[in-house]
Design goal:
CATH architecture: 3-Layer(aba) Sandwich
Structural class: alpha/beta
Strand content: 5-15%
Helix content: 55-70%
CATH class: Alpha Beta
Distance between the termini: 20 Å
Shape: globular
CATH topology: Rossmann fold
Number of strands: 5
């Protein structure tokens, strides 16, 4: 089975992936961040590096999805290939940070890749206000994230909400991160696990 966690930058995807993988004894696949050769450059000059970064993520997640399906194991994934194509690339294009020819090239790649992968069996979407995202980004203290623009986070949030409203690829669970503490609240973690168990058993 393939479970994926979707959400904006700073919404808590990595934290929840770790918590759930330990609880359920699932294999975990994380977003390639520390070894990403484009992230630092991207946040310094988004327009110059947007296409390079998005192609890197697209390739990385395409390989992840192939590995997940071939493994025969239950795997939880930090961010999906759909977010790259439905949110991040369109957002960069709309903000004038990715040229039209690059965007069209990127989407052509995604359309081809999407015919070769299956969507997750369960998508967990972490919904968070921009103020919550900023607080959590500052708390984790990644240097390259210090220059993230508020308008960038806001437009990403809008794209996420549009995507989730029309999401019909599989089961969907929405968690309000503004009211949930994955780190220190055992009750909040227990509540999330109960909601996931209900999805697995067809209970709503």
């Amino acid at each position: 089975m393939h479970i994926a966690i979707a959400g904006n930058i700073g919404s808590g995807k990595t934290t929840l992936t770790t918590v759930l993988s330990k609880h359920y004894n699932w294999d975990s696949h994380y977003e390639s961040v520390e070894d990403n050769p484009y992230l630092d450059d991207f946040y310094e000059d988004m327009q110059r590096w947007s296409f390079n970064l998005q192609v890197y993520f697209l390739n990385s997640r395409f390989n992840q999805v192939l590995d997940i399906r071939q493994s025969g194991k239950t795997v939880i994934q930090d961010r999906t290939i759909y977010e790259d194509a439905k949110i991040f690339a369109p957002n960069l294009h709309a903000m004038g940070l990715m040229q039209a020819r690059d965007y069209e090239n990127y989407m052509s790649l995604f359309e081809l890749m999407s015919t070769m992968v299956k969507p997750p069996d369960l998508l967990i979407y972490l919904r968070a206000d921009v103020s919550t995202l900023v607080r959590q980004i500052q708390k984790r203290g990644r240097d390259y994230e210090n220059t993230i623009r508020l308008d960038y986070l806001t437009s990403l949030n809008e794209k996420y909400e549009e995507w989730i409203k029309s999401y019909k690829l599989g089961k969907l669970l929405i968690i309000d991160v503004n009211q949930t503490d994955f780190v220190s609240s055992k009750k909040d973690i227990s509540d999330v696990i109960d909601k996931i168990d209900a999805q697995f058993h067809g209970l709503f």
